[in-house]
Amino acid sequence: MPPAPATPGRDCPLCPRLLDFRQVNRAANPAWHNAPVPSFGGLDATLLVVGLAPGLRGANRTGRPFTGDYAGDLLYATLLKVGLATGTYDRDPADGLTLRGARITNAVRCVPPENKPTGAEARTCRPFLVAEMAAMPKLKGVLALGQLAHTAVVAALGQKQVAMKFAHGAIHLLPGGRFLADSYHCSRYNTNTGTLTEEMFHAVVETAARRVKKD
Question: If DSSP codes are grouped into helix, strand and coil, which group holds residue 210?
């Protein structure tokens, strides 16, 4: 098993804007996590789910990716439905939910103002994503939630963006037999506007799950 990947420390100073925002939130909500959010799931997973960044009142509050907001409601319900999780999701890291063959992380580990990280912040956080994938010996596929996550994954893999354009439902083949699957982000905004339906999201996750479960 490769060594555990490098992760940003609680007081990571690499992105000044995110550091300032984190300090403001620590002062306003001292009981919240308010720090870079660690990945969830084992390093022996075959599927890595990559999101955008922690939500202010979701993962930034709870300390577990996609936990505590609508995006997590849809993501975890879908992972449970396709057999990539067991237990019950209850918007709480202590809910007992367990991932099976999946791991979840974010392209940017700290909560950004207005849920919008900059390209520079994504580039700064990229080494952590590179290390994450390098530490997963059984990794078969990556599911990118949204265009920024897609761009971060393609860059982390050293691939050309022009050859792997983001499109909901797209499956991009990667060197070594792995794949990258794209989905619109499972945010409330996307579902409220009809950009993404539960059926559309389920179809992408089910396809990714089926591919990583192949012998």
Answer: helix
Joined together, the tokens standing for residue 27 give 């002062």
- CA 165 vs CA 121, 125, 131, 179: distances in Å: 21, 21, 23, 14
For residue 131, what pLDDT band results from cuts at 50, 70 and 90? very high
Region for residue 163 given its phi and psi (left: phi exceeds 0; alpha: psi -120 to 50; beta: otherwise): alpha
Label residue 206 exposed, middle or buried (CB < 10 Å: 0-12, 13-18, 19+): middle
Domain CATH for 197: 3.40.470.10
How many domains is the chain built from?
Answer: 1
Q: Binning pLDDT at 50, 70 and 90, where does residue 3 land?
A: confident
Confidence of residue 214 (pLDDT cuts 50, 70, 90): confident
Q: Cα–Cα distance between 62 and 8 in angstroms, integer?
A: 17
Domain contains 45 = yes
Range of the domain at 57: 16-212
The answer to whether residue 7 is domain-embedded is: no
Q: Residue 182: name the closest of 140, 146, 155, 138 by CA.
A: 146
Residue 148 lies in a domain: yes
Q: Residues with Cβ < 8 Å from 169, sequence gap 6 or more?
A: 182, 183, 200, 203, 204, 207
Side-chain-side CA neighbours of residue 104 (13 Å): 25
